[in-house]
Design brief:
Elements (H helix, E strand, L loop, with lengths): L5 H10 L3 E3 L6 H5 L12 E4 L3 H14 L3 E4 L15 E4 L6 E4 L4 E5 L4 H9 L3 E2 L10 H6 L7 H4 L6 E7 L5 E5 L4 H7 L8 E8 L1 E2 L3 E10 L3 H11 L7 E9 L14 E9 L3 H12 L6 E8 H6 L10 E9 L4 H11 L8 E7 L2 H4 L13 E10 L5 H16 L19 H5 L2 H14 L21
Parallel strand pairs: 2-4, 3-4
Antiparallel strand pairs: 1-2, 5-6, 6-10, 7-11, 8-9, 8-10, 12-14, 12-15, 13-14, 13-17, 16-18, 17-18
Helix pairs in contact: 8-11
The structure holds flavin-adenine dinucleotide (FAD).
Length: 469
Amino acid sequence: MNPLHSAAVEELRAALLGEVITPADSPYDAARAVFNAMIDRRPAVIARCRGAADVIAAIAFAREQRLPIAVRGGGHSIAGHSTCDDGIVIDLSLMRGVHVDPERRTARVQAGATLADVDRETQVHGLAVPSGQVSETGIAGLTLNGGMGMLQRKYGLTCDNLLSAEMVTLDGEVVTASAEQNPELFWALRGGGGNFGVVTSFEYRAHPVGPMMLAGMVAYPVEQAVEVLRFLRDTISSTPDELSTDVVFLRVPALGFFPEEHRGRPVVGFFLRYSGPLDEGWDVIRPIREFGSPLIDVVEPMPLVTVQSMLDPANPRGHQQYWTSEFLPRFGSAEIETVARIGSDLPSPETVMQVIPFDAQPTRIEPDATAFSHREESWLIHIVGQWHDPAENDRCRAWVKEAGAALRAFGSGASYLNLLSEEPGTDRVAGFWDDARLRRLARVKAQYDPENLLRFNHNIPPAPAEAGQ
Ligand SMILES: Cc1cc2nc3c(=O)[nH]c(=O)nc-3n(C[C@H](O)[C@H](O)[C@H](O)COP(=O)(O)OP(=O)(O)OC[C@H]3O[C@@H](n4cnc5c(N)ncnc54)[C@H](O)[C@@H]3O)c2cc1C
């Protein structure tokens, strides 16, 4: 570690309303841990900020001390982007406030909030912001790279519902990005990741959803995967936008709502969530429940906050995580057979594969409206490689890589970057953002972070506009 002068650290401590943690402090090991236990980094300083003023002080300190800067919202980056060795982590986890304006149907959310924080406060008013599927995930990283979840078919991605953001620049200025103020930055923050500055709060459009939804799983022996996937492909486009139906491959976990007699068994199932009126919902999901002879059929009315946290126990902190994801433009027989083969051979009891129809509202949005690049109808295949024992890392990681390569043969090279481990040697950044978009993002990067101080992310190197551009 670059030995920091203790006087400088004390100055930072005095400047912050929040906490400063160094290797000499007892909470250091807990404070440096991130969701993915495979990531084990030792920052020189962790600055737990309480607001924009703390963030400004932390950035100034990092610049004076010439420290690499990592920014941490919920700490769920699978690639380990929210921590670093020998640098400063600007940790926003104390900034979890959510303020809802029920009249305007908006929610102002501090950047350290989790999805659970947002659901909890918005549901008080019968509202919801579309977000992801595991409630402890951070809203910040999820929004900045897109944000997919059960409400996306109806209301779009999380970034599609962003109305404005407050950001601290690397010069220590506070700027607002919205359709009216700094519109290029606003465009870049909706899908361009954490490249441009430290976002301190987000303002979202919220929608009337809940409090009750229909949710659950209809599952079959994994040997029936091809039929299940074909059924999903052939029916999804005729289902209402209120229905979210992913196909999931998993070994039946020891979770309350799964029948005990099937625990540990490999299955393939429809993961159903219906956000419209319940009486209509039962009719909407009937054809799915009548398909074939399900081994498991547990669909129930339940509160939105329960639905949003039902996968939490299957995604605990402390697991080794290695993920990949691939958008497949079509889902023909060859793709289906490959997906079924991969899903029938998961390398550990905790590994899950999810097949997500990417259709409806996200594909209706003008492709250039946001930096989120992928708006074509397609299928997102997400391999959640996870296991307990680090001794399994080589074997399981090799399995995920091989499965990813098999999927990539059918893809266009585009992955959903939020669901990706770092893969040295493959340029997934260029694969996701097309050339024109990358050039536009690089110009915004050059304006707000010309020295590329924020580089622990899916990095966009700064490139100022050339004359005439
Ligand atoms: C269990 C689990 C479930 C998930 N489920 C979903 C899902 O359903 N849908 C989905 O879309 N994604 C999902 N993801 C992926 C998730 O969107 C990403 O991991 C995302 O990065 C998490 O955000 P975070 O704030 O927790 O991340 P962090 O690790 O804190 O940060 C991730 C990146 O964002 C940057 N960043 C974070 N906060 C800021 C900020 N305030 N300003 C600037 N940059 C910032 C960081 O520097 C880093 O580069 C899931 C991830 C996990 C681990």
